[in-house]
Amino acid sequence: MGLPRSEDPGFRIEIDEPVGGPAVIRVRGDLDVVTAPVLDACLAEAVLTGHSVVVDLLYVPFLGCAGLAHSMMPPTGCPSSDAV
Length: 84
Fold this sequence. Notes:
The protein is of the alpha+beta class. It has helices spanning about 35-50, 65-70, and strands at about 10-15, 25-30, 55-60.
């Protein structure tokens, strides 16, 4: 999966795609109005390619309103909320 860039140098997303299991999207750094669209793009790509996804927020020290809103909504382009 392609990885969109963020303006925040402390923010990054790592994607692990184990064989036979769901993709794991590991988020590191603050998840806010600037970085939430990056996660949204990763989730949308995973869903559109038919992958099940686990989002690991263990290393997210700050989850702003925008980050929370993105985590509660289906990714952009997602056909149904069942995919989240």
